[in-house]
């Protein structure tokens, strides 16, 4: 089996804790046998997403390297392909899901417009549903065919939550990740104080995906408690948006640490 150099593993751990505090809290509940591989997998997705989001000139090259890795074609060795090679030596990693993730990165590189809810669902599947599927493969499943759709739904729920949390930040960067037809149907405005109907609609869609995702958690061989905590704490962002008046004021809905720990306790565990 391939081994990952210690500095890269340390970077994977620190990146998760710095860039994904909610996810990092849940990761502390994972069994040691899979925890580091989850950190490494997160580093792959985080690196590609950051390169694309920051419009770095090397972004397309790194995406192409992962695509070639998935296809078994010659490719440059990047940090992402090195990690994936090691993970594939230890787990049955679904390469088709990784290809779809790369397709989502290419959508971002092209700044593709999301016109309909079907477009948005496809995008959320590519950039986050696939992450859920690969994560489920790392954690192991009782029945892969039953687990994968639920894992994809949970990833999509989290992506839709990200979109709603970051509306103002994305607008400031000239980006909209909501379906333009849906925005138009609910008044055509994303301005604070004028988007309550839109957010109610989108929160309901995300909640339905969380419910579908929860159905698959019992299928996991490892990390069921961790995934439950991750889902519950992330879903709480939707409740925070509601408490703050559905975007009555500009800003990012935040769930603070004390509330996250309380949610973890309600899930039957305490982060240690």
Polypeptide structure, described:
This protein has one domain: Farnesyl Diphosphate Synthase (Orthogonal Bundle), CATH 1.10.600.10. The model has no long low-confidence stretch (mean pLDDT 94). The protein has helices at 6-19, 21-27, 32-53, 59-71, 79-90, 95-109, 117-139, 144-165, 167-172, 180-185, 196-214, 224-243, 257-266. It contains 13 helices and no strands. The radius of gyration is 18 Å and the shape is globular. Helix 3 runs antiparallel to helix 7 (117-139), helix 6 runs antiparallel to helix 7 and helix 12 packs across helix 13 (257-266).
Radius of gyration: 18 Å
Question: What string gives the helices and strands in order?
Answer: HHHHHHHHHHHHH
Architecture (CATH level 2) name: Orthogonal Bundle
Tell me the strand percentage band: under 5%
Shape: globular
Low-confidence stretches: none
Mean pLDDT: 94
Major sheet description: none
The helix tally amounts to: 13
CATH superfamily: Farnesyl Diphosphate Synthase
User: N-to-C terminal Cα separation, in Å?
Assistant: 31 Å
Classification by helices and strands:
mainly alpha
CATH class: Mainly Alpha
Helix percent band: 55-70%
CATH fold title = Farnesyl Diphosphate Synthase
Number of structural units classed as domains: 1
């Amino acid at each position: 089996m391939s081994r990952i150099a210690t500095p890269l593993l340390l970077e994977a751990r620190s990146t998760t804790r710095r860039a994904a505090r909610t996810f990092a809290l849940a990761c502390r509940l994972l069994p040691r046998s899979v925890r580091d591989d989850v950190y490494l997998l997160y580093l792959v997705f985080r690196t590609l997403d950051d390169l694309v989001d920051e419009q770095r000139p090397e972004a397309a090259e790194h995406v192409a390297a992962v695509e070639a890795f998935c296809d078994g074609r010659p490719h440059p060795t990047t940090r992402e392909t090195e990690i994936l090679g090691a993970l594939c030596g230890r787990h049955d990693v679904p390469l088709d899901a990784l290809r779809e993730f790369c397709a989502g990165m290419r959508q971002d590189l092209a700044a593709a417009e999301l016109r309909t809810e079907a477009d948005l669902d496809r995008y959320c599947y590519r950039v986050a549903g696939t992450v859920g599927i690969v994560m489920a493969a790392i954690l192991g499943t009782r029945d892969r065919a039953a687990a994968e759709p639920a894992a994809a739904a949970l990833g999509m729920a989290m992506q839709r939550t990200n979109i709603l949390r970051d509306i103002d930040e994305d607008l400031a960067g000239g980006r909209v990740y909501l379906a333009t037809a849906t925005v138009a149907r609910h008044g055509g405005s994303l301005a604070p104080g004028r988007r309550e109907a839109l957010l109610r609609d989108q929160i309901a869609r995300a909640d339905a995906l969380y419910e579908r995702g929860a159905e698959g958690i019992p299928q996991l061989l490892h990390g069921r408690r961790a995934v439950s905590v991750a889902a519950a704490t992330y879903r709480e962002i939707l409740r925070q948006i509601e408490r703050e008046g559905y975007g009555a004021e500009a800003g990012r809905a935040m769930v603070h640490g004390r509330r996250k720990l309380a949610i973890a306790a309600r899930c039957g565990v305490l982060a240690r």
